[in-house]
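Marked as duplicate of an earlier ticket. Keeping the data here for the record.
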Amino acid sequence: MTKQLQIYFLIIITTSSIYAHNFEYNYYNPSDSSYNCSLIILPNQKEIKGLVVRDYSKLPKYEAKNTSHYKWRDLALDNGLAILYTVTSNYFPELYYDDSGLILLDNMINEAINNYNIPKQNIFIGGISSSGTRALKYAQYCERNKSKYGLKVNSVFSVDSPLDYERFYNSAKKHKKYFKDGMLWEANIMPG
C-alpha cells in the first residue's frame, strides 16, 4: 500500500470516528414502535458522567453527524453525557390521569443507567411543550419517592410547557380563531 493511500485511510478513519458514537434503539414491544421505545447515544469516552433524557412523541432518526442547528446534543456528548431519547406516550395532550407513562420512563432510565454504568446522581431531563411537562412530572414523581429504583433528577428544564391544563384548555378554546399551524393543531385536538 502506498504512503498516500495509507494517509488517506487514516484521515477517513479519524474523521469518521469524530462523529461516530455508539447508539442503540430499543423497542420494548416489538409489535408497536409508536411508543414504549428509546434511543440511547453514548459519548466517545470511556467514563460516562451522566444522562440527558428527552421524551418525544416519536424517536428521532439517529445521524452520526448532528445536522440540527441546536447544539445541545454535541455539547452533551462532548462533555461525557449520554443521551436517552424516549417515547412513553402515544397520545397528546397527555393529562396524567395515572402514572403509567412515568413508570415507563422510570424503567427506561434505570435500564440505561444499569446497562451503561451511568452515575445515577447525574440525571438531567427536559423537553419542549408536552415533553417539558413530562420532564417536570417525572422530577416530581422522583421527589415523591415513587421511583421504583430510588432515582432522583439532578436538573430539569422545560420550555413552553402546559402546566395548568384548565388554563391551556380555556385559552385554546377562546383564541383558536387566531392560531396557525402547530398552535391550531393543538387547539383542534383539545376536547370540547
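See parent ticket for discussion. Residues 4-19 have pLDDT under 50 and may be disordered.
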